[in-house]
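user: can you give me the structure for this one chain? C-alpha cells are fine.
assistant: on it. calling the predictor now.
[tool input]
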Amino acid sequence: MEMTEKDIQTMERQLDDFNQKTRKNALQALVEAAEADTIPVKPMQEVANLHCHSFFSYNGYGYSPSHLAWLGKKQGIKFMGVVDFDVLDAVGEFLDACETAGVRGMAGIETRVFIPEFDDAEINSPGEPGILYHMGTGFTTTAVPDKARDTLSDLSQRASERNRDMLKRINQFLAPFSVDYDSEVLPLTPAGNATERHMVQVLAQKSIQTINDPAGFWAGKLDVGREEIEKMMQDENQFKNFLRAKLMKRGGVGYVQPTAASFPTVDTLHTVMESTNALPCAAWLDGTSDGEQRYEELLGLLIEKGACALNIVPDRNWNIADLAVKKDKLQKLYDVVALAREFHLPVLVGTEMNKFGQKFVDDFNAPELEPVKDTFLKGAEILYGHTQLQRYWEIGYQSAWALKHFSNRKEKSDFYQQAGQIIPPGHKKGSDELKQYDPEAVLVYINNK
C-alpha cells in the first residue's frame, strides 16, 4: 500500500492523541509501514537519548510516549528513555511502544527534592540552596506499591498547589487579563499533570488571541520596549521562553523561593525506587554552582543514600558559543564522568526535549564527546539490560537476585551491560526459573533464546 507524506503526517499526529488506543493503533500502522519499506527510516545507530520528557509532563514537540518510541525507530536511535516530572504515567505505554518499534527502551521520573546536608549550597536548581533535581530510572511498570503511590501522589499534589499559587499571583499582576487553571491549562495535558510550560503556553496564546494590542500589553506589564516584544512575538517559542523567565522564574511575580518544606527529601523519594527495584539517579547540571563544585562529596552522600546512576544532559556542557565558558564546562563534564567511572556508576544521557528546538539525540560523533562516548553507551546498555531483566524475570539491577549474586557495583554493571548487549527489543518472558540461575547461566540462556 502506497503511503503519502500526508498519510504519514496524519498518523504521526495520531501518536499524540490523548486517547491511548488511538496512539497504539497509529504506532502499529507506522511500524508495519516502516518494516514494509513504505516509510523510510534511518539505520540503527549507536546513540542514546535516555532523557526525553513526554506529554505526560511536557514535551516541546507535544510527543507522547508512543511518539518518542516511533522517533527512535524513524531516526535510528538505538536506546530511548522517557523521563517525566513527578509522574510515572508514561512507563507502561513507552516500554510497550519501544518493543513494538524495535527500540531499546527504559523509563524514569524526575522531580525536585530537599537535601538537608547541602541546605546552604546551590546545587543544580539555580538560585535554590538545598534543592536538588533528582531522578529515578529503570522503572518497568506504571503500577507501584501503596507506599510508593502515596509518595507519588504527594509529588503530584505539591506540584499542582505550586502551579495554582503561581498562576494566582500572575493573574493578580496581569489583571484584568487572567488564565483559569482548570478550564484552560489542565485540558492541555492527558492526565492532569500540568507544568509551568503549559501555563505559559496559555498565557502567550490567549493574550495574542484576546487582547487588542498584546505587544503593548506585555511591554507595559513587563517594562520592556514595545519593539523588543514585537520582535520576540514573531517567534512563538522565544516569546514563551521570555514570558516564563519574566513571570515564573526567580525574580518574577509568580516565583516563590522554596524552603525545606517545599519538596520531599532525597530519602523519601528513594523509597519509591526501593519499592519498585528501580535505580535512584543523581543529576548533573554543569559543575559551576557551589554544590556541584563539591560534587565528589555530594555524589558520595547520594550513593550512601542509595543512588546508583548519574544523569547528564551533555549539550549544555559543550555546545556553547563562548569558548572560555565551553572550555571550563567541558572539562567539568570530563571530570564528573571520570568520577562516575571511579564509583562504577552507569552514566545516562539525553537532551530533555521539554523545550522546542532541543535535539532529538545528542551528537555522539562530536569531537568534544569522543572521550566520554563509550561511557554514555555503556550506561545505556546497563540500564536497558536492567529494564529487560527486571520487567520479565524480576532480576534487575536492584533486585534481591542481584544483591545475592554481586558483591560490588562493578561486577553488577558489567553483567547488566552484557545483558543489554545481547537482549533484542521485544524479548519476551521465558522460563520462570531464570531467576534461580546464576549470572553466567542467565547470559547463556538469553544468548541462546
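assistant: here you go. The chain has three domains: 1-36, 41-140+277-440, 154-247. The CA atoms of residues 1 and 36 lie 9 Å apart.
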